[in-house]
Each structure stands twice: as structure tokens, then as C-alpha cells.
Amino acid sequence: MIRCIVQKLLSARNVLIMTHLRPDGDALGSSFGLRQFLRDNGISAEVIIPMSMPNRYRSLCHGELAAVSREEFAAYDLAVTVDCANSERLGCGSELSLEYLKSGNFINIDHHKGNSLDVSCALLDPEAASACTIVAEILLQSGREISPQCATFLLSGMMTDTGCFCFANTNGRALRTAAAMTDCGADVEKIANNIFFNKELNQLKFESELTGEHLKTACNGKFAYMYIPETLLEKYHFDLKEDEGLIDIVRSVSGTVIAMLCHRRQDGFRVSLRSKNKSFPVGSIARQFGGGGHEMAAGCTIEAADFSTVEKIMLQCMENLFNA
Ligand SMILES: [Mn+2]
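A: This is the predicted complex of the input protein with manganese (II) ion.
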């Protein structure tokens, strides 16, 4: 399959790259890394970001495109989705993309369990720590040079999806592909300073009040959770697209096995879950509420009138999980 993908990529003239809504480091790293590789090889390529770029990625990733018209879609002879598990998560004018998916030349590269994008040319590998790992493996097999810029994008996604190689998905393969990207000239310092040590002071103050006032624990400290009230979002003008990493504050509490972050959305309450112990996976809990993700990192949306209802539901889930 890798050979087939390499061949499709290198024989394309104009490639459209798409990823999931609310793009994270892996979504952006794999999209922009692939774009860079194609451009380095004289192939024109564009990334569609379905919404504005989170601040922490602004200095690394340029060239966002809000939407693509029907005419523009027709100009691409190959489309690639990276890190995107299903059509609902595919941002960029889903209907047009789906139309393209049915008719066009499409490649689907992902590491989510249960990827449901029906594409004949797919490289789906839930064992891979990040989509960037899979993209790196494809590019390494192409025999073409991987530029330092391309390697920097791919390493940034590998680092964000593994929590800088701290999470349980970190394995030898994740580290080997990361090492290969470093050998290709990936700029680790640039990634660190742009993504990990680059927080607005206002965000730090927001996080401080959020943690001070809204972090709770239950189940003898094994479950830690935080609800982000809308009043606090308003007070600090905090945009939820900057929330990547907020849940790691909850995860970092000593003794915590499951961490949860929750905020209100139009369609209900968005719940993000992380597990620190493979014996207590959260993927099935998220799927139970129509959500998805990975076994150790998952999310769902729960319809409820208020957070205290969500809190009761999740506390019950945790009791069941820990007492199973
Ligand atoms: Mn990912």
C-alpha cells in the first residue's frame, strides 16, 4: 500500500490536503508536512484548514484556506485526508469534499480506530502513535529527500500527539520515525519554542483561575475533571480553539487515572477524556455517547440541560469503570 500511495503522490500535479475539524498538532503537522514534501518535489499542493489556526501553530503553519469552491475542487487531481476518522469530522465544506471523495482520486491516511471514510486507497494504522508517523514512513519509503521544513512539520505532530513522547502511545516506532525526522534536519528547538513554550500571558491567567476554581476530583482521586464555565471564557476572552493541552493540567494531578475536560457547545456538552492507565481505557466510554477517538484519548458530546447532569453521568461511568 505504501508503494501505491507514493506512486499516486508523486504522479499527481495538484494535490488537495484535508484534515479534521478543530485541527490539532498532528492534523496540522501531517497536512503541512505532506504539502511541503509535495512542493519540494515540484508538485503543487494546498492544505484546507476548516477553521482559523490555533495560536500555538500560527508561527509554524502558514497558508490557511477557509473553503474551496466547486470550481477549485475540480482543479485538483488528487485529494488526501490525514488524521481524519470520518466524514463528520472532515471540515472544509464537507459536502463538496464528500462529493469529491466519491468521484475523485483520494488517499486516506489515519491512525484512528474505526476510520469510516470509504476510500479505496487507504493506509489506516491504529498502532501508529500519530498520523505524522505514518506520513513519515511513507515519505521515507519514497526514496526522495525529506527537507528540514517537512521534517519539522512531521516531528511537531509526533510530539503533540504523544505529549512529547510521554503518553502511552509512545513506542519504538514513534521514536524511530521521530529520530529519522531529526536526522532529516527537523528543528526541535523551533517546535519547542513555538508550540510548547509559547503561551499568551492571558491564557496562563485563565488557566490559573480555571484550575483554582473549577478543578475537582472524585473516586478517591482517581478521576479528576474540570468544567470550563462560559463566564470565565468571556472574562479572559479565551477562544476554545486554543484548548489543546488544557486537559493535560487535569491529567497532571497526582493519583489521577482518568482526566476529563468539559465545556458547553451549541449541541450539548463537549467532553474530552484521557486515561493514564491502559487497564482503564476511555475509548468505549466516548463511543457509548456517540463519540470516538483512541483508547487512551477520546471525546464525545453529551446532550444535557446543565453541567451537573453531565457530571452525574460521568461520575457514574467512572464508578462503573473503576469497580468493574
Ligand atoms: Mn492524530
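Residues 20 and 89 are 5 Å apart (CA to CA). The chain has 14 helices and eleven strands.
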